[in-house]
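Revision sheet: structure tokens.
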Amino acid sequence: MSYEPLKIGKHVIEKPIVQGGMGVGISWDRLAGSVSKEGGLGVISAVGTGYYENKVHAKKLVADRPLDAANFYSKEGLAAIVTNARKICGDKPLAANILYAINDYGRVVTDACEAGIDIIITGAGLPTNMPEFTADYPDVALVPIVSSAKALMIICKRWQKRYNRLPDAVVLEGPKSGGHQGFTYEQCALEENQLENLVRPVVEEAAKWGDIPVIAAGGIWDKNDIDAMMALGARGVQMGTRFIGTHECDAHENFKKVLLAAKEEDIQLMSSPVGYPARGVRTNLIGLIEKREGPSIKCISNCVAPCNRGEEAKEVGFCIADRLSDAYFGDMELGLFFSGTNGYRITEIISVKELMDKLTEGE
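Predicted:
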């Protein structure tokens, strides 16, 4: 099966493969720029941009960590990442992933637009007011992430009524993805919530609003998986974890080593201060958290609103901003290493070009 290009707003993605946004520092300039260069859609994670280039973009640090949301989600850091990604991919479409649950969401969306991002992808909550922050940038395409047809309907109704606008595409994420899920623990296991059973209802809902392209995500690994999603009506796929297994991925070499060493049973759901279950690799940190012996929680970066300035972090036993940034720096003792269910299938590190060829032409 050969693939049609994926159209998102005014932007055409030659190969309908969207690289999932992964933070802190997993998909920044090198990975996103390389994926866009190879004809997919590279996605820069807006999480933790104050850490970019070893924190030169964070104006204020406490205990060597960016202070508060203004520095954790650094405008200057994001602009530098976009600029450096453009050096790789030129004027090909480039996206940013901006979580709805973060503090300063609206400001970070505007920052991304100002930096020259073409497409904004938002999950971790229902982004019912997303168009509010891009009114001055009509060419920036908006792509919410949903986990059901009902969620898409709610977003379309709100956007149409308030802003006379509809999503340019929608990412449908099933419960096998890495990082935060759009389901409870119990819902993740239900048959009706598996991606292959969600695609058709969401495609049908999307068609009611004027043929919004649906991009399927969560547990997609190879060309066979892509073909299966396309057969169900998806126009493209989003893949995160498999791109960690590339030379260009911005993740620390130790992050890649954690996945190369992981077994299937090591990849588990865990509680998160964001309020949703998250999927990652069971490492030393998880054992410490279970014994309530994890690192102290100081809430320096104030990263996500649902955490309530560290209250939820204390409930679950870890600060997500600190632990994800530790993974970015390669700390195998205290880092938090997110992965989709297929992370254990990474057995070698290859180039983005080789991976894109495998995904479009077959293994």
